[in-house]
Amino acid sequence: MKKPFTYVVLILIIATACTDGISPSMATSDVVVLWHPYADARGDALQALSDQFNQEIPNGPTLIVEYHQDLLVKIKAAPEDQRPDIVVVTPDELRQYHQEGLALGEVTLPQEVAGTMEELLPMASALYTLDGNLQAIPLGLATYVLYFNDNWLRDLGYTPGTAMLEDLRFHACAASDLSSGQVGLGIPSHPGAVLALLTASGATLQNPPGTYTFNGAEGQWLMTMLHDGLRASCIRTFNVAEEGIGQFSEGAMAMMIESSLRRTEIELAIAAESNFTLGLGGLPSITGPRTGLWYGPGLLLLTPEGPRREMAEETLGWFLTPGAQEAWYAQAHFLPVRRSVIEQRLAQENLARTEEQFLRLTLTTAEQGNWRTWPQNGNETACRAALVRGLLQLAGDAVPNAVLDSMLATCNGLP
Hints:
Blueprint: H1 3-20, E1 31-36, H2 41-56, E2 62-67, H3 71-77, E3 86-89, H4 91-99, H5 111-114, H6 122-127, E4 129-130, E5 133-134, E6 137-138, E7 142-149, H7 150-156, H8 165-174, E8 183-188, H9 191-201, H10 217-231, E9 235-238, H11 241-249, E10 253-259, H12 263-273, E11 278-281, E12 292-295, E13 298-301, H13 307-318, H14 322-332, H15 339-346, H16 353-368, E14 371-373, H17 381-393, H18 400-411
Parallel strand pairs: 1-2, 1-3, 8-9, 8-10, 12-14
Antiparallel strand pairs: 3-13, 4-5, 6-13, 7-10, 7-11, 7-12
């Protein structure tokens, strides 16, 4: 099963596709096809992983990576022999594939990589566990954290490791100076940031899963805190990530909430200005232990039983190898999902301070169990819009509890 011959076959398939309507990803006996929805750097990273796979396993199946919009719609409409072997999904999408009868149930991997499943981080495996079984392979992890100007906060006496949400609000105001345009805390106008703050506050996002319940005492307290901070101009929202990162790196913002996926971008911006030392940590809570909200993509196997299924399982398992995890982390910035890969990374010399902080935060979160996964229906359009709209309304005269109730009603599909 030599790859040069396979590439010739693929060229012939693509050439004939224009005349007879056959998909370029039509199944062949020695090809594994992966579909993804990323028209950005993540898509480039998956293509690089495909090239890496094909180089590392020259006598194995050839991995072909393709970008498609509306993946589930296209897969449902395609004949079974023209569907991809593997598809990139979110937890919500996994449930949709399951409801459509396309998911195959519990993941099985070749014996040589099956042991890696035992060291998956719990927040990674929980994202893709349905009915008690892991039904897709987690590809990477991300979370929202607090980035801060370490020099500035040290002068203010803020202690990131032990500070609570009230300390965050107090020091945000202490760091603000309207006359100079300085603000203590920046929050992106993004639904994930709102959900992460609700999680950190101790609010229960959903109970049972699929039904939002974040309007308890913790959620109300958080809305009031944000309302007070936004009204006093101690907290600022920003619509475009680059805008907030620019203000932060230039020293006009003491702290900023952002996704772990932005770490490298933030580091480069600060390095260009050479203004301060960057620090980062989990979002503070109201009283108890810090709880982070975690999310990330997964790989779902669609190929039914047979020789092609075995090759697809082999390919799926490869994505959990240290080399693949390291490459995805380096290029797409999702944190590795295997404990040993993170530990090996931490053992490297001259590791950047912020990278070490991120990796240790990930391991500590897994060990202490202070995590929640992205809620069901968390990507639903109306809910996402309601979360952002609510955050922006808090800067005005809106009543915090009324904002919270409106967000909750929309996210639960109520009028």
